[in-house]
UniProtKB/TrEMBL annotation:
Top-level taxon: Bacteria
Record's GO cellular component terms: extracellular region
Gene Ontology molecular function, alphabetical: metalloexopeptidase activity
Domain Fibronectin type-III: 360-452
CDD domains given in the database record: FN3
Protein name: Peptidase M28
Localization terms from the record: Secreted
InterPro entries for this protein: FN3_dom, FN3_sf, Ig-like_fold, M28_fam, Peptidase_M28
Keyword Hydrolase applies: yes
Coiled-coil boundaries: none
């Protein structure tokens, strides 16, 4: 981990957000109460005995099976997807829907059929239709939703998304050419390639690949999906948004990650997990964290999942070229396909752990012990866990500290000593399986002298 870039850039989050096309002010974020998830199957620690400062050889490691999937990510496939999407001439939300070769209709039908082709018979693919009304223009839109059902006991849903629409300078111009290679054929290419390699295996959690429309007008497709998911009580444990991830020759070799209220929110916890797991599998392609919903004055589809109360983050290339944004110079031949391949591999590594790891644990019950700096943690032990990682993160720290580890046979009733009683901690646990895969971390709980002053600023991660 020492080789990873460690940098936190604090950005002031404007109360009025505009989007990637800088068109209109947006209402202030209002975070609703999340839906209640179905209780997970749990078993108690049979021993029930207190274990103090445990030591375990069950730790997060690189799983050879996941590493094999990462090597399957193909630059040639990614390039072919991007070139095909650019070849539709435009994917503007108000462009032709009847032509088989031009416009957004042809593009979404191709994406639908491509998900079917790469899905190895395991993907359920459907259109999600919704109306778009914008500045006096109306048009029927469709998200493309490809679902890889979970096969294990997990009841969580992982969303991997990107928008497939694009635009010329005039956001309502559906006739002019609009290439949109990096923004956002690159994100759709990443979705398709991830679906191709991950559809070859079974996963505990359900994975949904979501290609949205009408992002350029204000994330209307993502909003429609997220609001419906909230109303349906869908247990979305994470939403990963990939937008403009193609890179160019010469830019720094890292990804940018945006998560709002990073130190105290579920979105920050997801971003911290992403950075940690990505660093295990791709240590030479680090993730740089930004404490903000998005770039200043900009937006992305993850915003709608934040509004709906689901943990959501955005991934984007390390440096943008403003001269290419919404320009016909944004063409397939300017993308760095080695960079895009690494972005896709990063996504596969994180998605494979979230979807293939054990149940995300319930938050532990934490009690201070008589000895200063000693705490007692109790939690139910799930049958699919071989061990647990325990995080006592100083609340002002961006990254995870050195974990404490405990085997499942000793877990559920653990005392930890040697912590600093003057520090306020955010405490969470993650389950590990026998192959070293890491579940999502439990909702952070705050303990220490200033814990009562902390007001977590976002939705609680569903279990």
């Amino acid at each position: 981990m020492s080789k990873r870039i460690v940098r936190l850039i604090i950005l002031a989050l404007l109360p009025v957000l505009a989007g990637c096309s800088l068109l209109e002010p947006q209402p202030q974020l209002v975070i609703p109460t999340p839906p209640v998830a179905t209780p997970e199957l749990i078993i108690p620690n049979e021993a029930g005995q207190l274990v103090t400062d445990p030591v375990s050889d069950v730790v997060p490691t690189v799983d050879p099976a996941v590493e094999s999937l990462i090597t399957e990510v193909s630059q040639q496939q990614l390039m072919a997807y991007v070139r095909q999407l650019e070849g539709f001439g435009t994917r503007n939300a108000f462009s032709d829907t009847q032509s088989e070769t031009f416009g957004i209709g042809a593009a979404r039908r191709w994406i639908f059929n491509e998900f079917v082709r790469v899905g190895n018979g395991r993907l359920t693919v459907e259109f999600q239709d919704f109306p778009l009304s914008y500045n006096g223009y109306t048009a029927e839109q469709s998200n493309v939703v490809a679902t890889l059902p979970g096969k294990g006991n997990g009841n969580g849903v992982l969303i991997i998304m990107g928008h497939y629409d694009n635009r010329p300078p005039d956001v309502t111009d559906g006739a002019s050419r609009a290439t949109g290679a990096n923004d956002n054929a690159s994100g759709i290419a990443l979705l398709l390639e991830t679906a191709r390699v991950m559809s070859s295996r079974d996963w505990n959690q359900t994975i949904i690949f979501l290609a949205t429309s009408a992002e350029e007008q204000g994330s209307f497709g993502a909003r429609f999906y997220a609001e419906n998911a909230f109303m349906e009580g869908k247990n979305i444990i994470s939403a990963l948004n990939y937008d403009a991830v193609g890179g160019r020759a010469g830019i720094p070799q890292h990804a940018r990650l945006f998560a709002v209220d990073f130190l105290t929110s579920a979105h920050g916890a997801l971003g911290r997990y992403y950075e940690y797991v990505g660093g295990l599998y791709l240590p030479t392609f680090p993730v740089v964290i930004y404490d903000a919903l998005d770039r200043e004055g900009r937006w992305g589809d993850h915003r709608e999942f934040v509004r709906a109360g689901f943990p959501a983050i955005r991934l984007i290339e390390s440096v943008e070229d403003p001269d290419l944004v919404n320009s016909n110079r944004d063409t397939w031949d300017l993308i760095d396909y080695t960079y895009l391949q690494r972005m896709a591999q990063l996504n596969v590594s994180v998605a494979a752990n979230l979807a293939g790891g054990p149940h995300q644990p319930a938050p532990p019950i934490i009690a201070a012990m008589a000895e200063p700096g000693a705490y007692l943690l109790t939690w139910p032990v799930t049958p699919d866990a071989s061990g647990y990682a325990i995080s006592f993160r100083p609340v002002d720290s961006v990254y995870y500290p050195t974990f404490r580890f405990v085997k499942a046979s000793n877990a559920g009733n653990v005392a930890l000593t040697g912590l600093d009683p003057s520090v306020t901690y955010a405490v969470s646990i993650a389950a590990l399986n026998e192959r070293g895969l890491v579940s999502g971390f439990s909702t952070e709980q705050f303990i220490g002298p200033n814990a009562a002053l902390i007001n977590p600023s976002s939705v609680t991660v569903q279990q």
